[in-house]
Amino acid sequence: MITVRRKSRRGQTKRRRRRRRKKKKKKEEVVKEKEEEDEEKKKKEEEKGGREEGEEEERGGEEEGDEEEEEEREKKKKKKKKKKEEEEEEEEEELPTTSEKYGCAERIRRESIFLDTAAI
After folding, report:
1. Cα R_g (the chain), whole angstroms
2. Torsion of the alpha carbons at 67, 71, 74 and 78, rounded to the nearest 10
3. Phi, psi at residue 77, to the nearest 5°?
4. Nearest-CA neighbor of 30 among 86, 101, 83?
5. pLDDT, tens digit, for every residue of 42-74?
């Protein structure tokens, strides 16, 4: 009986695993951010409940809170932009497959041979 040796796909599986890990991390980060936002909302709602009792005294505090909320939103937007830029850079950094590498070279070689034979 003849045994056939399989080609290893180590590089491909490495890339797959790396992508899976990245996706997992991103999902975990999103879940953590959502949980933090939910906690902040709950705290704000609790504070609002306390404000109803002494609204006149804390009106100045509400304005400061609004400014803080806007700053937090801006920070979150900046973080999201940075993440998107990093993802785009990572996608650009991915190495081309062998067919992409050599496919272009093969096509150029064929065209040059065709042009050489046409010139003769």
Report:
1. 29
2. 170
3. -60, -45
4. 83
5. 998 888 877 665 555 555 555 666 888 888 889
